[in-house]
Specification:
Layout (H helix, E strand, L loop, with lengths): L3 E6 L5 E3 L6 H7 E5 L28
Antiparallel strand pairs: 1-2, 1-3
The protein binds zinc ion.
Length: 63
């Protein structure tokens, strides 16, 4: 079973890492969770100054 790695906005196709998910109200209306299997080409968080590749597991190095 794949883990959810990000959210995608249905209206703008913006991808947000789990640190930068939109507020709950916006999320419910406009965003869907995406899993690693949904991003065969990878995915970069579109939040300003973030740029995290959501397919790279984080946390192992404490950052
Ligand atoms: Zn981000």
């Amino acid at each position: 079973m794949a883990d959810m790695v990000a959210y995608r906005s249905l209206s703008t196709s913006m991808l947000r890492c789990l640190d930068h998910v939109p507020p709950p109200a916006a999320r419910a209306a406009n965003c869907v969770p995406v899993e690693a299997d949904d991003l065969p080409d990878g995915g970069i968080c579109t939040y300003p100054d973030c740029g995290v590749d959501v397919l790279i597991p984080r946390g192992a190095d404490g950052s």
